[in-house]
Design goal:
The chain has 84 residues and is mostly beta strands. It has one helix and eight strands. Strand 4 (32-38) and strand 5 form a beta hairpin.
Length: 84
Amino acid sequence: MSSITKETFKAGEFIFFEGDIESHFYIIEKGEVLIFTKDQNGGKIEIARFKDGETFGEFALIDTGTRSASAQAVSETKVMKISS
């Protein structure tokens, strides 16, 4: 059963982590999200940034594996979380 919920994340707060197993994605209503992975020394490697109206995390609906990157709010971010 699908569901849609609204969530708010403060600047710096993590939305999900690399390795998590989830079956939902997000639509940004307002804010900015950084998608990144880490190098061998624990440093961030930026993959993408998403802003108002953009989506992220949709691979979780297709791929049954773990998250391939982490997502972190850059500013206060309001999202719609769509779960399958």
